[in-house]
Amino acid sequence: MASCVVQVRLDEKVKQKADKLFDDLGFDTPTAIRIFLAQAIKNRGLPFDVRQITNNAETLEAIEEIEEHIKSG
């Protein structure tokens, strides 16, 4: 199987934290990325739930009440 190189730009702190996490799990970051890609292919999508959180009317009303309560002391 032929290999290729994939480059990704990211924040240095994110890379350091990811490297530490994956090291604690027993593998390196390139292996973690290969696992992610393999799972994405297997799942035919992202291997985790991605969604936008929406609040219902009751939750929005409760948030507004709390914000008003905080403002009024």
State the gist of this model.
The protein has 73 residues and is mostly helical.
Can you characterise this structure?
- This protein has three helices and no strands.
- With 73 residues, the chain is mainly α.
- The chain has one domain (12-72).
- It is elongated.
- The model has no long low-confidence stretch (mean pLDDT 92).
Q: Which descriptors apply to this entry?
A:
single chain; 73 residues; mainly alpha; elongated
How is the topology of this model organized?
Blueprint: H1 12-25, H2 29-43, H3 57-72
Going by helix content, strand content and strand pairing, the class is: mainly alpha
Instruction: Label the overall shape.
Output: elongated
How many domain units? 1
Spatial gap, N to C terminus: 65 Å
Which radius of gyration do the C-alpha atoms yield? Answer: 21 Å
